[in-house]
Each structure stands twice: as C-alpha cells, then as structure tokens.
Amino acid sequence: MLKSISTFEQILKSPKHVTMEYTFLDFVSLLGALGFFIYGMKVMSEGIQKVAGSKMRKILGAMTSNRFKGVFTGFLLTALVQSSSATTVMVVSFVNAGLLNLVESIGVIMGANIGTTVTAWIISLIGFKVKISAYALPIIAIGAPLLFVSKSKPRAWGEVFIGFALLFMGLAALKGAVPDLKSNPEILSFLQHYADMGYLSIIMFVAIGTLVTVVVQSSSAAMAVTLVMANQGWIPFELAAAMVLGENIGTTITANLAALIANVHAKRAARAHFIFNIGGVVWMLIVFIPFLKGINAYMEATMGSSPFAQATAIPIGLSIFHTLFNIINTTMMVWFVPQIARLVTKMVPSKGDDDEFHLEFIGMNIMPTPEISILEARKEVAKFAKITTRMSEFTHVLIAKKQHKSRQKMMDKMKHYEEITDRMEVEIATFLAKVSEGNISEESSFKIRALLSINNDLERIGDIFYQISLTIERQLESAQWFSEEQITNLLKIYTLLDEALNIMRHNLNNDYSKVTIDAALNKEREINALRNELRRDYLKRVEKGEYHVKDAIHYIELINACEKVGDHVINVSEAVTGQI
Question: Is the pTM of the predicted complex or chain greater than 0.70?
Fold first, then answer.
C-alpha cells in the first residue's frame, strides 16, 4: 500500500527476535498507566474550570453573539480546559440557562473540536521531546501547599499544577508500559493481515479509534494512546491517522450515550456534535490518501522527515493532520449551522408539556462546575414556579364556576401537579446537595442555600394550592355554595395573589443580583391588608348571624390559605435578593 508497510514487513521477517516477553502483568501495567494519564488530565481540567469559574459565563455571553465568534470561543475554552467534553457540557448548561441559543452553541462545539487538537500538539512537541516527568515532582511541590489554603481559588490552582504534573507522569508511564517493538516484533504480526487491504484497512482502524475512545471515555486520552503507539512504531502513519478520525466519531458517541438520560438541550447538542463530526469523517475518507501525501510532502520540505518512513515523525504528522482536519471541517460546516440546528430540533423535539414530569434543565450525568450547576438549578426553579402559577389559574375557575364542565379534570390536574411539585423538590434538592459536596466557594454555597430555600417554599405553595382545591371540593359537596359576594371577595384576594406570583416568577427569571424586593413587599402588604379586611367583615357577619359558621368555614379557610401562599411567595423573593 505505502512504503511504510514494507518497512514493517522487513521488521517482522527479521530472524533476530523470535520470542515475545510481554506478560499479563505488563498489560495490566499498561492499563494502569493509561488510567494515570486520564486521572491527571481530569484533575487538571477540573482545576482550570474552577479557576475560571463564573468568568466562563461572562466570556461565553460576550463572545458568542454569532456563530463565528462562537467557534473562536469554543477553541479558546477547550485549549484552556484541555477537554472538549468539558466544553460541550458547559455549552449545554449555558443553553439550559438561556445564555446561549442552539445556533450559538453549535458554533462553540465546532470550536471545541479545534481546541482539542492542542492536546496532541502539547504531547507531540513536549511529551516526546522534553522529559516533563523529570520536573513533575517540583511542580507537585509547588501545587501541594496550595491545596491546604482556605480560599477556593488558590486550591483550584493547586489542582491545576498537580494535574499537569500527573498528566505527564502518566504519559511517561504510558510510554514505558507500551511493549518495545524492537524486542517484541511479533506484536505487529497481526498487522500483516490488515495493513495491506487498501481502504478496508483504513475503515477498520477508524472503527478501532472509535472503540478506543468509547472505552477510555476521552478523545484526548485516545489521542495520547495513538501518539504513543505511533511513536513506538506499532502502527504506520496512515493507520494512526485513521484512528484519529475514529476518535472524532468516538467522542460524539460518548456524548450521545451521556445524553440518553439527559434533557432535550443536551440531546440536541450531542446530535449536532455527531452530525458535524461524522460529516467531516466522511469527506476526509474520500480524500484521505492525497491529504496524507500532502502532509508528508510538507514535512519533508520543511522538517526533512517523513511520517511514512520514520516512526518518530508520526506524532507531528498526526498533530498536523488532526488540526487541519478540524479547521477545514469547521470552515466548511460553520456555514450550515442554522440548518444543523433545525435538523437536530426536528430529531429531538421538546416535550414542552408541564403535565408530564421531567426536569428540563437538570439531567446530565456529568457534573459541570458549581457555577454552571447553579445556573441549571435556577432555570429549573423558574420552571417550578411556572407550575405553581398554573395551579393558581385552576383555583380561579374552581371558585368562580360551580358547574364548570372540566371541574373534575382540573381537580385531577391539581392532584397531579401537587405530585409533580413533590418530585421536583426532591430532585432539585438532591442535585444541589451533590453540587455542594464539591469544592465550592462561599459565594456558591450561599447561592445553593438560597435555591434550597426557594425550592422548599415552592413545594409548600404546591401543597397549599392542592389543599385549597380540596376545600373548594368539600364546599361543593355541602348543601351551601359560596354567595356571589363571597366569590367576588375570594377572586379579589386570589387576583392579588396571582400578581404576587407573577412578580415572583419575574424575579426568578432575572439575574438575582439585579432583583429588588420592593414590588414583592408591596404586593404582600396588599394581600395582608385585604386578608385582614375580609376577616373582620367575616367576623362581623357571623356575629350578626348573616353567615352561619358551619356554612362559611370553608370561605375563611380559603382566605387564610391565600395569605399562607403569599407568605411563601415573599419568602422566595427574599431568598432571591439574599435575605435569608
């Protein structure tokens, strides 16, 4: 096929080496070295995310006003965080929080594909040429003391330093654990059967790259494995490049598997990522050999080395291939972002029905940074408030229309919504508890407490509205229905409550730092004043015998229940403004 294959055949036919000494323990050591590398990458990535923290939200908001800025932003973030998966998760979270739309998010994901190529360059230029592992312990010596600092930012920097050191220690261990081809040429014997099958060989190694990425759950780790294998002479340049293409597919499969139990926004972003990458792999396979020959000609002209002839040149060749592929693919596909967005929206339609219980903004199995998690929880809490408002709307109909044709249906909905509020409270609280278990700042801790308080108040509002519906139902079953005056009074106070609920929802959907308590407090005073007025009027009428206590007890219960809901509503706005 290419001259690199004949080179490997010559090695394999050499009579000098006839035994292979690579035991099961050596294989387990190889897996351990891979785990070491992945762990170092994870620690460094999480540390960088914590350092960036809330600034990432401002960066994304300012730099994604169009798809082209989004591409640059995705590249920049991924180059910094060293994980396209982390960037994708962040992007989905911002879509959930309403900070990005789907079109902008696809642009950022495209940029993340370019940003992830930085990992290959770091490993190729530094990992194989400079023994960073020799400096690992001094780097850890710098980072370790920072872990014991009380402030969260220095601790995060400590994680960055230690993660960086562990990553290159893991790479050194990986290089040492890979069997030496010169001592064990039989390892490559299986390639004789698969390396000369033309395009079928390339397709097979695309599949292998996909599988490796799915198994290790990281395209960066899979790229590191490919670079080490190529550098050690395990596989020729064209098959290593095929594995790189497979890794581009594998990272999207990982994202789609993660999105299976996630929300609709995560599913759409994952599908868009898959369409983008699979489309790129298809066109690259069409021009694969000429493309690699072009890279080979460039390297021979500028560096005097050929990745087809020298195994040590393959890492640089792969880095060039990986970067060029993603840049060209993004340049081509960025013009079709609106079409991709429409396609994935059709592929993953939103349920959009409050009657079905599902958390829309929380649901990813990968936990992003605390700041992003808080944004997700805020959006979910705002949806929670919308459900309680719907319960208030049903209450108006139940009070005003004794014989309404859909009364029973509304009663069933009130019960169903009350069950939904119970489950939402549990799941949101569970999510926030998991977030609080991480390394969070005092500011994030305060925000979580506020959200837990709001979550509890909203659940109590749902409970009270359900009890209100039962009170109305008991009145309906009695011989005496509310008088016209009583209905007017009830609708009057419940209209004030609706206005208070709308203010609450407005506050929950706004930036909490910009919310003021004044409007909510004024409405709470109006509710309390009307409650007191109606109560005094009720007592006077009972005293005069105009109201029979037994017949009017449900009337006063509804007035008191309205005031209780109002108390929880003002509690929510107080928590939003930090008064907890």
Answer: no
